[in-house]
Amino acid sequence: MNARHESRPRPGFADIEAAAARLAGVARRTPRLADTPLDEALGGRLLFKAECLQRNGAFKFRGAYNRLVQLDAPERRAGVVAFSSGNHAQGVAAAARMLGIPATIVMPSDAPAIKLENTRALGAQVVLYDRFTEDREAIARRLVAERGATLVPAYDDPHVVAGQGTAGLELMQQAAELGLVPDQVLVPTSGGGLTAGTAIAVRTLAPAAAVYGVEPEAFDDTRRSLAAGTLLRNPPGARSICDALQSSPPGELTFAINRELLAGVLTVSDREVEAAMARAFRDLKLVVEPGGAVALAAALAGRIALAGRTTAIILSGGNVDPATFIAALSR
Q: What are phi and psi of 187, to 5 degrees?
């Protein structure tokens, strides 16, 4: 979406397959973990998609690259603008550097230091704002208008959704390599891009599978929006350690897809998220950030029945400040 905005159709499975072709050899085919100690502990068969090991430590690179690689030459010269608390920022910055495109990222001043540092290190210009008093979208759109740049949304864009959906496509392919079809898939949810893309891929390949979004309980705008049938925002004073999952409200495009394809949305507390981060470190040998651990937290907290079922869980990111990670392990 840019100054010459035009409506685009809702992405489908063919768009995810096309995105996978563009990302081949560029994005990592992240590992699938199975047969872990958590199977016995939780009484079910668990598959983990380790997007915390994706380029820049999160799934966001998939959608960012799929969007940027389709820009024409004049659009590439004009550059791109994005707004993000960190993972989309790094994804856009990395894709822009690979493609030779100038990138400006609007980021909250309280974003984790590791995300700010990594975004700058990738060559992007960072514009800081106060997430509680300033409108990041307004800042980004002003920059787009001034520069004639292309706005790269974090989730509410069909090319971004299709790119994120490649994580779900890979997950289903990797499950098939084990002779498995997931009964249910748990996906970290905020603006809804990863959830929507994954739901399209999963429900196309396994129509009977149930896909659930998972949100922090203080940022449950997707759950409430689905219940109300309309987009709802999070309360302005809401707080959570899940910095990557604080977008509000869900995107119009992603909400429409998730409203049709999701079986429901689960919520977890910050303390449950910390427990999941510690468990991922102990039993999976993975560093997972708070927002990336919410789907595992839902499984550990008993938000959904696991016994006798094959449950796939996406660990969506691993960019966590050392102090936050140490605090989670200490508890």
A: -130, 125
| Tally of CB atoms within 10 A around 261 | 17
Cβ proximity of 311 and 184 under 8 Å: yes
Order of strands, sheet of 32-33, starting from the edge strand that comes earlier in the sequence: 32-33, 45-50, 310-315, 184-188, 210-216, 264-268
State both tokens at 312. Answer: 């796939």
**Helix residue ranges per DSSP H, 180-293:** 193-205, 221-228, 252-261, 270-279
pTM, 2 dp: 0.94
- Per residue in 215-246, pLDDT (tens digit) is 999 999 999 999 999 999 999 888 999 988 88
Instruction: Copy the structure tokens of residue 178.
Output: 């084990």
Supply the pLDDT for residue 4.
35
pLDDT digits (tens, 9 = 90+) for 172-189: 999 999 999 999 999 999
The answer to whether 215 and 265 are in contact (CB under 8 A) is yes
The two three-digit tokens of residue 244, written as one number: 């990557």
Q: Residue 212 pairs with which residues in a beta bridge?
A: 186, 264
What H or E segment, with its residue span, contains residue 97?
A: helix 87-99
Nearest-10 crossing angle of helices 60-68, 87-99: 40
CA pair distance 305, 309, nearest whole angstrom: 8
Q: Which pair of structure tokens corresponds to residue 122?
A: 């990738």
Q: What are 214's two structure tokens?
A: 């998972």
Q: Which residues are catalytic?
A: 60, 316
Using an 8 Å Cβ cutoff, are 183 and 210 in contact?
yes
Say if CB 250 and CB 191 are below 8 A apart: yes
**Statement: residue 331 has pLDDT above 90:** no
Hey, what are 134's tokens? 């300033």
- C-alpha dihedral (156, 161, 163, 165), degrees to nearest 10: 150
- Exposed, middle or buried by CB within 10 Å (0-12, 13-18, 19+), for 21? exposed
Residue 295's closest CA among 73, 120, 38? 38
